UniProtKB/TrEMBL annotation:
Keywords tagged on the record: Coiled coil, DNA recombination, Meiosis, Nucleus
Protein name, as recorded: Homologous-pairing protein 2 homolog
Subcellular location: Nucleus
Encoding gene (name): LOC105262338
Residues covered by the Homologous-pairing protein 2 winged helix domain: 34-90
Length: 238
C-alpha cells in the first residue's frame, strides 16, 4: 500500500488534503481507521464528515469513515465537537507532543546553525567591504602613468631653468679686478655719506643752542627726513 498526501481543492474557503490510496495486487487493503487517522493527523485541523470523505476518498465509504472517526474519538486520538447539527472532528493536540518537541528541537538546532553561518557570512562581507573601500582609494595604472608624466615634465622644466640660471651666473661672474673696483667705490660712498651726515648733525646742534624746542620739533619744523623716517639702512664700510 502507498499513501500520498496532496492538495486537491478548496471547499468553504478551507484547504482539503486528499489521500490517494492505491493497492498492489500482492498487498492487503489497509484498515479505514488507519487511513482516516493518518489523514486527520497529517491535516491537523477541524473537519466535518463530508470533508473527511472527500479527503480520504469516497471509495472507502461514508459509513466506514464515520465509524473510524467515532473509534478514534473513543481512543482519545480525535476530539468531536458539535456545531449546531454538525459534528466536527480534529486531532487532540497532545497526540504528537513528543514528535512536536523533537521537531522543535531540531528546528532550533538548524536555526542556530543557520544563524552561525549567517554571522560568518556577514563577517566575511564586512571584511570584503573594508578591502573594497581601501582598494577604491588606490589609483589606477592609468592615473599613476599620468602622474608620472606630469612629474617628468616638472623635472624637465626645473632642469631647464637650472641650466638657464647657471648660464646667467657664468656670464655675470665678476673678475677679481671688478670686485676691487666695486669695493673701492663702495668705500668712497660710505665715507662721503658719513661726512655729510656729520655736517648735518653739527648744523642741527648749532641751531638747537638757541632754539626753544626739542631736536625732534626742530627737524619737523625744518622739514628734514631722517634715515629712520625713510627706512634707510645700510652697512657702511669702515
Amino acid at each position: 500500500m502507498s499513501v500520498v498526501i496532496k492538495h486537491l481543492h478548496e471547499r468553504n474557503d478551507s484547504a482539503l488534503v486528499m489521500v490517494h490510496v492505491s493497492w498492489s495486487r500482492n498487498m492487503s487493503k489497509p484498515s479505514v481507521v488507519k487511513i482516516v487517522q493518518e489523514f486527520m493527523l497529517k491535516a491537523n485541523r477541524p473537519y466535518a464528515i463530508n470533508d473527511v470523505v472527500d479527503g480520504c476518498g469516497k471509495d472507502l465509504g461514508k459509513s466506514a469513515i464515520q465509524k473510524s472517526l467515532d473509534s478514534l474519538v473513543d481512543k482519545d486520538i480525535l476530539i468531536m465537537k458539535m456545531y449546531g447539527k454538525n459534528k466536527i472532528y480534529f486531532p487532540k493536540q497532545n497526540t504528537n507532543t513528543a514528535e512536536l518537541k523533537k521537531d522543535v528541537f531540531l528546528a532550533k538546532q538548524k536555526l542556530a546553525q543557520v544563524r552561525q553561518v549567517l554571522k560568518s557570512k556577514e563577517n566575511q562581507l564586512s571584511e570584503m567591504q573594508t578591502k573594497l573601500r581601501s582598494l577604491s582609494k588606490i589609483k589606477t595604472v592609468a592615473q599613476l602613468e599620468e602622474e608620472k608624466e606630469n612629474l617628468m615634465d616638472d623635472i624637465r622644466n626645473i632642469n631647464e631653468r637650472l641650466r638657464h640660471y647657471e648660464a646667467q651666473e657664468k656670464e655675470a661672474k665678476l673678475s677679481a679686478q671688478d670686485v676691487k673696483k666695486i669695493e673701492a667705490k663702495y668705500a668712497n660712498v660710505s665715507t662721503a655719506y658719513r661726512k655729510r651726515k656729520r655736517i648735518c648733525t653739527d648744523m642741527l646742534d648749532a641751531i638747537l643752542e638757541g632754539y626753544p624746542k626739542t631736536k625732534k620739533a626742530l627737524i619737523a619744523d625744518i622739514g628734514l627726513e631722517t634715515d629712520d623716517d625713510v627706512g634707510f639702512k645700510i652697512e657702511l664700510k669702515r
